[in-house]
Amino acid sequence: MQRYFIDQAYQPTVEITGESHHHMSRVMRMTAEDQVFLVFNDQTAIKARITAIDNEKVMLEEVEKERLQRELPIQITIASGFPKGEKLELIVQKGTELGAHAFIAFPGDSSVAKWDAKKQNKKQQRLNKIAQEAAEQSHRQALPKVNFTSEKELMAAFADYDAVLIAYEESAKQGEKAQLVQTFQQLQADQKLLVIFGPEGGLTPREIELFQTAGAKLCGLGPRILRTETAPFYLLSAASFYYELQY
Amino acid sequence: MQRYFIDQAYQPTVEITGESHHHMSRVMRMTAEDQVFLVFNDQTAIKARITAIDNEKVMLEEVEKERLQRELPIQITIASGFPKGEKLELIVQKGTELGAHAFIAFPGDSSVAKWDAKKQNKKQQRLNKIAQEAAEQSHRQALPKVNFTSEKELMAAFADYDAVLIAYEESAKQGEKAQLVQTFQQLQADQKLLVIFGPEGGLTPREIELFQTAGAKLCGLGPRILRTETAPFYLLSAASFYYELQY
Fold first, then answer.
1. Which single residue of A159, B73, B76, B130 has CA 20 to 30 Å from B193?
2. Which of B69, B71, B4, B57 shows the shortest CA–CA distance to B35?
């Protein structure tokens, strides 16, 4: 059943205009009595029935709440040093399917990609669109947002999280394997985890030291060296396995 | 340090010709005393030193064995119903990084892609090349192979595995969450697990019934609906977290 993210708080009867109206009426050619899933910006998800539809709006009313909890109990934000090419698109698409709460892209010391404000703006819009499509397809109950920040802004935001991890290749090489499990054990429901991933070439010693001084902890993701876009998939899958399958 | 997969059993002094010789001498312009990692087809991995190099061969001798165990304790084979476009390339590349032991591609009932023998042969070569590059990059100690089989061949191979799972979207929708953990708990080191993933559109009821009758078990991968190429990443990451970080 089609899924729509509605940028307003939950209410049992809803009037929808704009893009979602267009998609229901023109793309899907829906009519009265058709049913869809609606996800409100407070993460309430309902099955709803169309009561009326015209050229400007769709009227819907709640049939029932969605029963299955589809969001990870902790909120995980993936921060990626600007990677090359279309890798950020892949991270956002698959990361959304795998349950990421939000994405941050920042200019890493090793980043080859340099995007000016205009290009960055365009890329951000494109990435948010990808996140929305992936959220609909994977039946999310929250819509992840993608933001571009400077290193300074990234670090200023550390205070908003209950834990900050650095996925560090050298930790993996040295066989570090306790930190991720420990962090999962410590975090309670609704707490927030930020995990920082370097671009191709990794984080530099300067960045590592800076982030560590600000409270971030180094964390290995198993004994194989993962590409910059693969490491977030590992982290999110491990979180889902730990919180959603094991307990 | 550069990594080479050598298709022969371990020996402390080695003579290398062919493609790896070309890469060492021409691409990397290596000379005597340079060091590389060599991985033999019995999964022995060593650091080796070049003792001599000429236009036809490279002579190397062992410096030391690689200490870190980089292979998952269980051998996981990923079987994918032919997906669209370049998705198999993505599955093989990222799946190799994440530790898959082997890959099988089979024609699923819902597969849109139809490859004739010639196209299939070419695709298989390409995929094995991708697996090799990913194995080198991720520091694997075993080189995953990619094979194309019929449904009949896939099922005949069930007997070679200690457990067979079906990643099934409907299981996820219904909140099934015990099977994966149970399977991991039951498998011992060096045992073999086959996991079957449908193409886009999923496995059909006919396929599910067929595989189940042959002993495969349905398995959910968390409450979000994963794309056909994302589900194997989840499975492999969860296995690594379970076997390599938690215990």
1. B130
2. B4
